Amino acid sequence: MEQHLEQFIQDIKANPTVDLILYPEGYCQVTHLDEVKQLAKRFQKSVVMGYRNEQNVDRALIINKRGETLLDRAKTPETMPLFMPSTIEDDGHRYGYVLCREIFMGLDGLKSEEDIQLIFNPIGVGMFSEEQYADWSDEAKKIAMQQRFIILGTSHADRSYRNCGFSIPMAYCFDKTGEPVFLSKNDTRTRIVDTEAKTVVVLEDSLPCH
């Protein structure tokens, strides 16, 4: 949750071999979208994140490496079924997207006859308890196992969850068998994940949480 895309700009410039960048729910404002698209096109990287529109409402966003918007939809209200489209195709790859708590409806909303290579879960402020952290990661693992695709999620970590005074930042990646490629808690460093080799590199020079 930054004013001028500081960490995003650092990450997209410093990692030329990365194909796709995943950022949390609500990371940028609508006024930053043109800059995000320009950076995606300039550095030839797909971008997945959440942003807030003119009414400060969270929306889902996927931009391809040509700077084109592939997905831009509202966040699902908690009492409603998962909004569609929840899958998109880009250059022969099919992606799924669940924004924040939509992960708990993922098994219903992401049913598809087409193979999905990756599903993304941008998360808001993080977890408000150890129990929620366990429930969230368990749900992600269950989706990966039942749907047989890789799932990745990340939260930001700069304010408390619903004014409770704190939040637990998290990020995760489960493979198609439900095995964790990584599962992090209270660690805001940037990670590079190779989804084929199932390896993870932690960048020690990541910007600190504000």
From TrEMBL:
Top-rank taxon, per record: Bacteria
Name of the protein in question: CN hydrolase domain-containing protein
| Gene source species | Exiguobacterium mexicanum
